[in-house]
Structure prediction request, 171 residues.
Amino acid sequence: GPEGPELRFAAENFFDGVIWKRFIDDELIAYPGNRDILLEVSPPLDAWPLNFEKRIFDMRVRGIKPIFAHPERYEKLASDFELVEKLCSMGMVMLISVTTLGAGFLNPLRRRAETFVKRGYATAAATDIHSARELPVVKKGINRLIKLVGEDNARAMLSDRPRAFSTEPST
Prediction:
């Protein structure tokens, strides 16, 4: 019969003291096959880690590509596009959640996600769902992404670029 999808282990790394120790010990949880890592800032969402930019720079120097999970959730990034531009120029990937794009029109996180997409900061997208009940919101979010960037760019953001995280060497 047909084979199922290939499953690989990866996880979000909360940017805290533990991640820094794992970085120093070369034990970060990365996408399979390379050194791309999915980062998230620990709650509260309005807090910001000390020395964040320097540590991102140090990771890039060691060949690690940081991928920032759902940046639209963080007030610091939503209110400081100069910082977002700097992080992107350092090689950080901004990965938005299509579940956020599928939220109601008045949802402030949806507006933030749309801004990240429209300004070109978000170059990848993922579902971030935790149950099948969220699938209708995912569908709405994918349709919204297609309206914002077109079908080809949406496919690249949802499939091509995320697939590259787990198959191509980090640059």
